[in-house]
């Protein structure tokens, strides 16, 4: 409760000017197209296993490395762990695994526990910076800017992660790479997917399915993702995270939002365009529900509770 109140207080103090529309006219355009209704069966194939892999990323490095992380691991069946990377912290920044069910290499980024969600807001203060064009040469001159905190996190692991994916592809003969993550991990996953897309052989299918995605960059970044990676992301009900940082600060979501309307897990909409006003973008921070951030997403709730060491 204390964390939640702090969260809301920070939200309103850090963001009240943009939320309340004190800088009208500076916002990017919101899409207005009518969303299409979807049921659970329409989403299983694109989001179910990504959600399960993203949930594993909350567990300790040791339990992931021998695939003994309890229900999150057993739900996925016989998956082969390949590599993890990050700090000396208990939770890896990412892990790489081989999924034999579709012969793919999976990259899952660290999940953010709810009490750490404040780090997202701290990062908001860092704002937009130029995308590293040394790493993304094809973007030179396009005016792409991304969230500086997300780019810093991405840069810390990008080289080791690419080496691990290349080795995984060559060792297993996989023809697909599936990238996933939740929250902060979702934002970093979009950068990872764009980087892998330009780095692996063009015959390799690189897909991205993420959950509770905050805005990660400007309009040019959203357009770049739309034309290269093709983001698929699920947002849940009144979760505040997908509506920060605000569009009034120059941030814009890519296309590809699937919005969950209620707890039933059978009532979703596919939202055309970028930042569709009928989906998360139409939510207000003043009526947000932080519980919605962790899920459920196709029945999966994120957090450490289901890991062997709990909490
Ligand atoms: C998993 O690895 C950890 C650390 O190496 C070890 O303590 C644990 O016994 C292992 N579990 C299994 C089932 O191998
Ligand atoms: C699990 O997968 C590995 C590699 O794909 C395979 O060698 C092993 O036989 C499988 N184990 C089971 C129990 O299916
Ligand atoms: C930009 O990317 C290059 C690799 O392409 C890397 O060596 C460099 O450290 C990155 N710069 C920053 C500021 O992260
Ligand atoms: C789905 O959500 C809409 C809007 O909240 C609601 O009107 C409808 O009854 C819901 N349908 C189901 C099957 O839950
Ligand atoms: C937030 O959402 C959860 C899950 O739907 C619900 O149980 C809870 O009552 C909601 N809280 C508020 C304040 O609406």
UniProtKB/TrEMBL annotation:
<feature type="signal peptide">
    <location>
        <begin position="1"/>
        <end position="16"/>
    </location>
</feature>
<dbReference type="GO" id="GO:0006629">
    <property type="term" value="P:lipid metabolic process"/>
</dbReference>
<dbReference type="Pfam" id="PF01764">
    <property type="entry name" value="Lipase_3"/>
</dbReference>
<feature type="domain" description="Fungal lipase-type">
    <location>
        <begin position="110"/>
        <end position="247"/>
    </location>
</feature>
<keyword id="KW-0732">Signal</keyword>
<dbReference type="InterPro" id="IPR051218">
    <property type="entry name" value="Sec_MonoDiacylglyc_Lipase"/>
</dbReference>
<protein>
    <submittedName>
        <fullName>Alpha/beta-hydrolase</fullName>
    </submittedName>
</protein>
<comment type="similarity">
    <text>Belongs to the AB hydrolase superfamily. Lipase family. Class 3 subfamily.</text>
</comment>
<dbReference type="InterPro" id="IPR002921">
    <property type="entry name" value="Fungal_lipase-type"/>
</dbReference>
<feature type="region of interest" description="Disordered">
    <location>
        <begin position="272"/>
        <end position="292"/>
    </location>
</feature>
<dbReference type="InterPro" id="IPR029058">
    <property type="entry name" value="AB_hydrolase_fold"/>
</dbReference>
<keyword id="KW-1015">Disulfide bond</keyword>
